[in-house]
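Exercise 7. Predict the joint structure of the components listed below.
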Amino acid sequence: MGSQASTLLRHEELEEIKKETGFSHSQIARLYKRFTSLDVNGVGALSREDFLRIPELAINPLGDRIISAFFPEGEDEANFRVFIRILARFRPISDKEKSKDAKGPEPLNSRSNKLRFAFQLYDLDKDDKISRSELIQVLRMMVGVNISEEQLGVMADRTIQEADEDGDGAISFTEFVKVFEKTGIEQKMSIQFLD
Amino acid sequence: MVSAHALLFSLDYQHVQIPFEITLWIMLASLAKIGFHLYNKMPTVVPESCLLIFVGLIMGGLIYSLNDKSPPVMDSDIFFLYLLPPIVLEAGYFMPSRPFFENIGTILLYAVVGTMWNAFGIGLSLYGICQVKYFNLQDVSLLHNLWFGSLIAAVDPVAVLSVFEEIHVNEKLHILVFGESLLNDAVTVVLYKLFKSFCEMPSIKLVDILAAIGKFFLVGIGGIFIGLLFGVFAAFTTRFTKTIRVIEPLFVFLYSYLSYLTAELFHLSGIVAIITCAMSMKRYVEANISQKSHTTIKYFMKMWSSVSDTLIFIFLGVSTIGNNHEWNWPYICFTIIFCLIWRALGVLVLTFFVNKCHVNTVTRKDQFIIAYGGLRGAICFSLVFLLPEFSRKKLFIAATTVVILFTVFVQGMTIRPLVDLLDVTRRRETSPTVSEQILIRFFDHLLAGIEDISGHWGQYYWKDKLEYFNSRYLQKILLREYDQPKSSIVLLYEKLERKHAIELAEAGQLIHTPSSTSLLRSRETAVSIQSPASTNRDIMDNIQEILTTNLYKIRRVAPAYNRYTLPGEMGTAEQAKEILIRRHKSLRLSFSQSDSDQSQKKLHPGLPCEWQGLEHLGHLPLLF
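Solution:
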């Protein structure tokens, strides 16, 4: 890309995106419109400031983490492919996708990929474990400053104690998944994208 | 025979008759309940409601044979004014608001559209049956049939509660059926009064029908409005009850009952009003009142609703015996059949629409249970007795009685085996743990964020907006101690710790180990991020001890944990400021770092450079 924001997507690209993400034509078009409206400088990619310009996101406690998910490996710009790939994870799992199971590569919005995305938001150093301090960081973001360090620590310990099974003091991905077994996480991690 | 002058003993029954009889009935109801629970097997096979009706039948038979006249029929006024409100209040107060509001669209659809569908369907089909010459029913007019349809269509919350309570289906299913049964009151009231007025009017014009539609909205929204009004008053009142804790529970009951009566005064939906009142005041009242008041409220509500429930079913049984019925079996049988058919159709069609626009699909099994769980109960019964006297009233009474008995006995008894058979997902018996609660909250934020990014206004948007309104305005007015707001994660954590410690105290031991061992392990974990500040083992042990032994202090002692002297409340505005300040700092730091050390791309392996600064930030006092 790199051209004006008003450039429409080429047909081949549209097909690729459709296959990769599973969105319909109209959904992709709508998201592209949203992308361009966020991209006020018209460079064809979004920077962190563009995201922060969304007011609700700026005051979302997890805002920073969510935004960082769009900029992997220290890059500064998110193009449309990255944008829509991440949003695709939140597409609801339809029944026919569930059944065609092991035929091809796992779809982006599979249960496991949804959970992995959430896991990565916790796990900053990418060592595949949520350690106590990573947990405390997230907790601190969510509860504000009224709570003392000790209290946070105790809560984090309690959380790890409940979820940890192999006793390494951190939560691995499989333990993370287990916590959600009882909750209907597919519904929680999906939003209905409008056409 | 009593002689005229004074005796040692005299008998004056008239004096105490009314309270005496009432007390005797309640006593009978409660003894019956004890009786059932003595035989542990019974409630699993036969639901309690059936047994109570059975007792009522026996009582009715006894009275009939003794007096040789019809036993007292349950007075509709008594039912609507005294027996129904406690049950509905308890239901509304303990309603889990989160699943309720998540499914509110579905619930409203079932309640409003479903009930109307049922009412018109049953009424019209019965009218069709009445046309058949053989059944001798031709004088039952269309209007009467529709009227009957409107009162028999309504699913009854009392019956549903008593049956579903025992079968423990999953929360969503429970809330769908239950929410529907509560909210369809508005529709029932409107339809019932509508047909009543139509019967009295000589002719019906289009404008009347339009007025009826408008009336429906008025009834529902008016009920909600009154409920909210009284809820706010109640919350506000409890703000000032710090010195007279003893009467706190009374306010809860008084305000709720007033909301019900006020709504009934204006012919609005009392049930909707009382539910709204209970749900809206709960949050603030619970924050303002003492622990003991909270327990009192809980127990009294459960007690009153239990007594009401029992009495209703017994009276149902009693009223069945007697001369009030005209047993026209074809009509009755067709009524039952049509009730079942129309309900099933209604659920199918509506669920089809629901599944199209919702992520949470209602499965086939759920649909079956919803359709099958549409029990009729005492509300229909009272409404049919309220019908004015006309030639065929007894026919309707008979039909209603049979339908209720059928649904409660047959459907009530078979629903449990069916649930087992279909393997409907059961409710989880344990409450969410701290880790689950935290992660769920995490997802809420995450989804709100993603929805904002994608420009989509889903339910989380409205939830966030409501929360903002709440913390900005409502909490200031309605909460007494608004300077110690805590996020609900902390509240849940404290609640769990409290429960845990009570269990431990009862078991007679205290535990230290979890905190210290996990602390040890976390030291050993090779994480290159700066380790947390409070690694002092003694502090951890101390806190755990404090938490486990002196738990009741937590509720009031919260300011002690507040190491930062923050002015005013931790509202969303303050929270927003904090987050923004943090973000600016991290951005500044990241810029300065990327300027100064270009060669050193990453200090720690795998960490993006902005986050380096944040580690230090986490332990700095925030400046305002």
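Discussion. Residues 1-7 of chain A have pLDDT under 50 and may be disordered.
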